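Help! Submission page says 'invalid entity' but I think these are all valid:
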Amino acid sequence: MSSRETILQRLRNRTGGELTVPECDFSVLQRPDWSTAERVDRFERMIESVHGEVHRCTDDNWMNRLAEILATRGARNLLVAKTHEISQSLRNAGRNDLPELLIYDEPVHSWKGHLFNEVDASITSTRGGIAETGSLILWPTVDEPRLMSLVPPVHIAILKASELYTTFHEAMKAQNWSAGMPTNALLISGPSKTADIEQTLAYGVHGPKELIVLVIE
Amino acid sequence: MVDTIRVYPSKPAKVYFYGTCLVDMFYPDAGIAGVELLEREGIEVLFPQNQTCCGQPAYTSGYHDQARSVAKAQLDLFPGDWPIVVPSGSCGGMMRKHYPALFKDTTDEVKAAGIAGRVWELTDFLLNVCHIKLDDLGEPTTVAMHTSCSARREMGVAEVGPKLLGQLKNVNLVEQIRPEECCGFGGTFAVRHPEISGAMVSEKVDTLVEAGTKEFVTTDCGCLMNIAGYAEKNQKPLEGQHILSFLWARTQDKGGQQS
Amino acid sequence: MSETAEHTDHHIDVKQFHPRAQAAIQNPKIRKNFRSAMDGLMSKRKAAFEGWDLETLRDLGANIRMRALANLPDLLEQLEKKLTENGVKVHWAVDGDEACRIVRDICKARDAKTVIKGKSMVSEEMELNHYLQEQDIEALESDLGEYIVQLADETPSHIIMPAIHKNTGEISQLLHDKTGTDLSNDVEYLTASARLQLREKFMNADVGVSGVNFAVAETGTLCLVENEGNGRMTTTVPPCHIAVTGIEKVVPTMEDLTGLLALLTRSATGQHITTYFNMISGPRKAEELDGPEEVHLVLVDNGRSSIYQDDELLDTLRCIRCGACMNHCPVYTRVGGHAYGTTYPGPIGKILMPHLIGLDEGRHLPTASSLCGACGEVCPVKIPIPDLLVRLRQESVDGDKLHPAKVRGHGAKRSTMEAMIWKGWAWMHASPGFYRFGTGAASKLRALQPASAGAWTDYRTAPKLAAKTLHQRMKERGQ
């Protein structure tokens, strides 16, 4: 008998009594229906409490803010998606205050060393955010691959205020996640950090040292 | 672990007093203080002379057959419908929480459940059933309270001791750090793992002394003999007594006569 | 078995709990490191749940886990089906050795020489690192705490904070000795230096091995909770990702994650959420530019299906590995994680390990508790840990052949002498007349009470018998 069958058989033929299947009431996770402004406030507070940055912007000025952020950090380049509108607008802006734009358009194995060692910052979109915990929802795609938000030391994310949900539960229901998930999805709630050395927080242990969110209001 | 809803009965004419074996042999003054407090509230105290031990030592040691035979000998002590009061969170917890499990699927199941539902930790009973009002006649003093883990977590009466002590106008109640941390008694744990238990009680004594008190009161005699016994052996400036002894003494005239 | 003979040499003798506990208690550095760490974790947890209806939330957590366990075999099959549809290869292992061999075979098939690991307690259970080393496969831990512990050739002393037994100075010295990092008390510097060393490893590793916090059956999704990003690196950068998990980790729905995640991170470290919550549902698709080409899931039983047989012990399997029970345990705080000598230390270890190693090997585990109940009070899924400790005590002293053995090593701790003492005790306390006679006589003879009472009086004075028992005094009062 295979291990699979052995295990399943042991579980199916358990000696104890019938197991009850309790009801699960998720209403304890509900929060009052915050206004967008309240959600942005809460989101900002939560991200800042974990060493992240939030910049409130508009469709018209986010690129200015981005340029400032990158200039302050002396970023030599910015990793962008191939076709996403964020990438398109940056490339079409023809600005000279932005660093070199690197496009993630090749499989990672062909430029892994460069990605790990030479890229200073990246910018990605999000699938919304969660106000309660200060979280960004990312579903990496062919256009915006997984490592964009992980490898460069600075990750900048664009979040539309209108796509900010109150709770994880609300976000998941609204986007109908139970119908199927992409190969990779994640919540990001701050820069990479560790407290493994005597509970002292240190940032950027493996992922980005900085998480900067541009909230488009 | 604590029942979410507890409905207190109205004040009864009589109660059964379940003294517990530690009170019986080592701290009978605490038992008598409890009886006096109840009587002062106008309650007649019934003391079944055939009571021995709730069975907990054997139960927590894993000897459930032995625990059951001892517990079974307690089941017929309370024929009337009166509440059963216990000057201990630990023995109270055994009777209220563990008797139903211990007698599950036996012929005594119903009887055990009936008794469990009538068991009250005595300070809880004084405060929430008798609505006791304490008139402090003692000299100003400072004490700390140590609520036993079973009083806190099985009986859910952590608020009771401080409330009662709060009624005493000349008593300054100081809070120890980590009041919810175990003193290290744990019954047979103290002798099976003496070094761990010793480390726990030594820190407990230190935190009590650091809280700025030379005196502590507690709901349970196990904690009392552990904490006070450690302090005595190691010459720490700390003495303890059962909260019932303390409450009774504070509300007496110097002559020991009540008005 | 011969394949893993060496591998078992690494085992710590769990039975030597007492000497290890004593040594830890007498080590001021260990005492201080754990006390301050546990104080910090307790207060952070408390703050994180402020404003929550915690009892109701814990009820939800318990119900989610109970519902999953009630349908465990069906859910595992559903999970396997979904994952397979998503392109993930699912393997089943009855024990740790088989799980190790599965990982090895996947590595060999890819001619893999280096494995980078994310944090996984199941892989600790399997002792995977040592096994792979014997197979000439380098296995490197990438979680900073696990990395430190691995450099020191130790095991984790806490399931969430593996290196919590060490202070900054000790870690600095270790990194200096093993990796040439300059000595420093600057945690940022030490962290940055580990980052540099591990980045190289991530780039070049052939395989990534991770654990799983929750596996969702309805979508075939493997979830990982982490702060460092090493979990993401491990599961994204190498061309092959192997996830290992206990069979109990499956939940039916995505919605279940919301309740469990809310509880897990707050209970563990007092965080509202961790930096990363990874949801992996398959390998990279042809058109994708990164992610592993192969994803495997190894479902490990290793004693869990035995625990599953018993209605009471089953509750052990609700555990979501938050570590709150150890953070709040006064015993764990005093002796630290290594004293237990087991993969999982603290209260959860005391109720889980006896199933994995047997009650003979783990004889001291269930008794090393004052039954204070702090663990059960904070458990996010309401595992009645103190009750289960009592149950395992019963299992370990039970000599009654009528009771079927539910745990390996049933009755291992039974001694005829101890059983006789309890029988005598029971007889006296079930006989009120003898009880009154005995206690009354003891009171009369109290002048003869010995000052020493075994281990009790090593630390305390003996309680003093009263002149008269309560029974006698009540009788005198006419009651």
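Support: the input was valid. A stray whitespace character was the problem, and the output above is from the cleaned input. The two ends of chain A are 60 Å apart (CA to CA).
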